Amino acid sequence: MESEEKNANIGGEDKSMSAKKNMKIFFAGFAGLIGVVLVLSGVVGIYRTYALAATDNFTLAVAKVLRLPVAKIGSTVALYTDYADDLHAIKTMRDYDKANNGPGANFTDEEMSDQVLLRIANNVLLDQEATSYGVTVEQSDIDALKTTLMQQFENVDKLNEELGKRYGWTLVDYEKKVMRSYILQNKLNEKIATDDKLKEEVKAQAQSVLDQIKGGADFAEMATQYGQDGTKDQGGDLGFFKKGEMVPEFETAAFALNEGDVAQELVETEYGYHIIKVEEKKTEDVVNPDTKKKEKVESVHARHILFRYPSVDVFLGDLAKKTNFHLYVKVHNPFTDLNK
């Protein structure tokens, strides 16, 4: 009898141990299944991020958890979630402009993606240089800009409503994504514009180009290579202009030259340093609108090469040309031409 009870107990224990073992196997298998699902979800999310540049909730959740990068600017990684968030904002703006005949109504998907990526890159470089110059955004700066912004709206609720319609943002979002970088860029511009070392570097470059032209270099080719205004693609060609149409310093230098001459010294104006060449001159009879009488008016056809004073735009543009950009997602790459 005792032997039968013992066997029964042993049998019960065996069943209990077997059941526990089966439960362990079940949980282990279930945990493994969850792991496989998570891995597959991650793989799918990564694929949708980099191959499709998708912005659905699933893809963004994976990108957020894994902190997937959209690009690398120098040594700084920019996150895909920031790209997707800004892309959503600019698409919201496009829809708003379409409904209200705004300037962004005809933005293409490629143009919007380019704008977002360039903005992200600009902010990375801006933060980098602001740090090197010791420039920071203070709460007082933000409060002052908010006060200016609020002058256009009845109250904060109205402002939030407008920001929501235009960008899908609140004032908190707008402060973080727009106001901070706007203030930082303006403060950095003040620092750069008064940096005597940078100004001397600009002058030295201008003088070097002028010396090359004096030595026989083609003026139009040098203008295309070094010019920093809209005439560079036309070899610096300004066409004909009369007195009173240019800033005084530029006008005085240009009208003092003979046809074919290049100014032997740099001409400094409010815009920067110019190298000037006069192609031809002409004098025409023009009716004076006040006296109704004909007067002889001299015109000059000139080219120039402008070397702009240091500014945050020029500074960041030059910095971008020296920076390595790596784009991870399969979208149009707006950085391609920067390093050429």
Task: Please summarize what this structure is.
By secondary structure, the protein is α+β, with helices and mostly antiparallel strands. It has helices at 2-50, 57-66, 80-100, 109-133, 139-150, 156-167, 171-193, 196-214, 219-226, 248-256, 312-322; strands at 69-73, 76-79, 237-242, 267-269, 272-287, 294-308, 325-327.
Give a topology summary:
Elements: H1 2-50, H2 57-66, E1 69-73, E2 76-79, H3 80-100, H4 109-133, H5 139-150, H6 156-167, H7 171-193, H8 196-214, H9 219-226, E3 237-242, H10 248-256, E4 267-269, E5 272-287, E6 294-308, H11 312-322, E7 325-327
Structure description:
By secondary structure, the protein is an alpha+beta fold. The protein folds into 3 domains: 2-61; 68-195 and 319-327; 211-309, Chitinase A, domain 3. Helices cover 59% and strands 15% of the residues. It has 11 helices and 7 strands. It has a 4-stranded antiparallel sheet. α1 crosses α2 and α3 (80-100) crosses α4. The longest helix is centred in the first third of the chain and has 49 residues, at 2-50. It is elongated and about 70 Å long. The N and C termini lie far apart (96 Å). 21% of the residues are buried. The model is unreliable at 1-11 and 21-45 (pLDDT under 50).
What attributes characterize this protein structure?
single chain; 340 residues; alpha+beta; Chitinase A, domain 3; 3 domains; four-stranded antiparallel beta sheet; three-stranded antiparallel beta sheet; 11 helices; 59% helix; elongated; rotamase; transmembrane
